[in-house]
Structure formats: C-alpha cells, structure tokens
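[RESIDUES AND BACKBONE]
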Amino acid sequence: MSERLPVSYFHFPVEAIKAGYYSDAYFIRTQEILRGANRHPKVLMQIFTREKVVLCGTDEVIALLRQCAFKGDELTIKSLRDGDEVEPWETVMTIEGDYGLFAHLETLYLGILARQSRIATNVRAVVKAANGKPVLFFPARYDIYQTQESDGYAALIGGVKSCSTDANAKAAGGRGIGTIPHALIAAYGGDTVAASAAFDRYIDPSVARIALVDFDNDCVNTSLAVARKLGRNLYGVRLDTSGSMVDKSLWSQIGMFKPTGVCKELVANVRRALDAEGFDYVKIIVSGGFDAPRVAAFEELGVPVDSYAVGSTFFDGNINFTADIVRVDGKDCAKAGRRYNPNPRLQAVD
C-alpha cells in the first residue's frame, strides 16, 4: 500500500492499555521501578523476526505507540512498510525514546506484528500459487471475531480483497461475499436446487449466485440440476467434499488415484459435465483444506478451477517477532548475542 493508515484509523482501549491490562506483568513492574527510581534511560528498541515474512501490522503498531504510550509524540519511530518482504534478522522497526514511556507496549506490538505478518505471509503464498486466479479469504470461523478487521487488513496486504465477512472486508472497502451454505440446503430439507432457487429469488441480483453442490455427495449431478434450474443466473458452483468422503462420480474410478475430498478428478468430472450441457460459463470454486502447496499442485496439473476459497490454513505457522534494547543513552548496550543492526530500508515516521 502506498500510504500508511493514519493513526486515527485505529481505536484502542487506551486507558486499559496504559494501565497494563494487556501487558506481560514484568514490563509493568519494570515501568514501576523506573518511575520509582526517577530513571529515564533513552533507549533504542530494535524489532526483528527470525523468519522470511511478508511484514504486516506496522501501521497499527505506530498508532499504538502514538496513542497508548505516555507522551507518544516524543518517540522517534522508524519502520518498514506493511507488505514489505523481510529477511530473517532484518530490523523491521526501531523505537527511540525514554523507555519508561513505552515499556508497557512491548507485549502488544509484538503480538500485532506476529499475527498480521503470519496471515499476510500465508495469503501471499496462496496468491502466488493461484497463478492469477481469485483467492477468497474465508477463515473467520476459525478464530475469535474481534480479530476480523485486522485479519482482513492482513489479507489485503497479502493480496486478497474478497472476504467472507463485512469486518474482514473493511480494509478493502468491500462487503462480505459467500456461497449458499450447507445450512440453507438443510433448511430446505436437503434440496440443493430448492435452496439455490430461493437464494436466487430473495437475494439482491448483484450478489453472485454460487451453489454449494456437495450436500448429497454427488457434485456432478447436483451441479447440473442447479444449472438447469438457474440457467444464466448461476455464476458458479463450489466443491467442498470432505477429505473423508469420495464423491459418487468417482466410485467407478477408485483404485487409480486417491479419490477423497476435492481431488483433481472430481473437478474434471464436474467441468466436463457442465460443458457437455452448455453450461461452460459456470465457474468452479473449490474449498476444503487448500493451502499454497495444494493450490500450486492444482495449477501445475492444469486442474480447471476458477477460484480457490481458503480458510484455516491462513492461520498456519508460527511467526514471532523479538524486541531488544540495543542502545542506551547513545551507547551500545544489548544482551549477549544481540547488537544494533541498522537497516537503510527503514523510513522515519511522523
């Protein structure tokens, strides 16, 4: 993104943060000791990660420091940008100032960077693997709802704008998108065609009609039945067969390949069936356990997928950031094994 998000974009529980409610206790005690001793070391705090990542969360950290530090405008901050690709041990941000003003924030800013960078890194990997095809960000159900706005922002930094909730889509300026869920089909007695027709009848025409077609474990015939009913109103079908199931269209082929879940043979069967009846305009969306390697494998094999809906795998992995004081009152001072590591890519922050 070319411009940083303004400090005013973010809203923190400032008083609770300043009181140390979200901080590791030892940082609050450190702050208490410095105040009691009337000690005001001017430190240079240096932040890095040990992984190669897509950096995300710097704008929120800057806002956190400005709003929730004591005299946050007195801190000198230099930072890389959200979306920058970072090498292991590369300094991503420095904070300079009286340590007592911001000691209570370390837990928070490391957590922000860790979560958002993990998501942005995973999203970018899937986007690259998808080879230009749309990727849908659908992991909201796998974590607590309070993180949705920041998670959606991380997805945007990673390269995805299409999200399942309005909160996820906030940063991209959009609305949540989605297909017909299993629950609606169940509400219509397990009749996918009836549920799809109801969706078509009652939902705004601007919303793409995408039918979920695995309810009966018969993706080929269900796709055809919905296409015959909706005709040109049907934008696409989504295949979401469980990894423990074998779709009916593959029963006669078992023995030559792993037939479970949304495999390439199932996608090919659905594509052939739709094309044979003139429904070549109907898109195929796949979901269910897709990550970057699996998407890359589908693309390498030329599987006729039009877009990928990805969920829990966007939260995979363990990306951590570390903050170290490396200078005190203008002199080098760091724990053994650490040192000041200047980075010419850092930009001063207003």
Summary: The chain has a mean pLDDT of 96. The domain at 131-315 is CATH 3.20.20.70 (TIM Barrel). The chain has two domains: 7-118+317-349, 131-315.
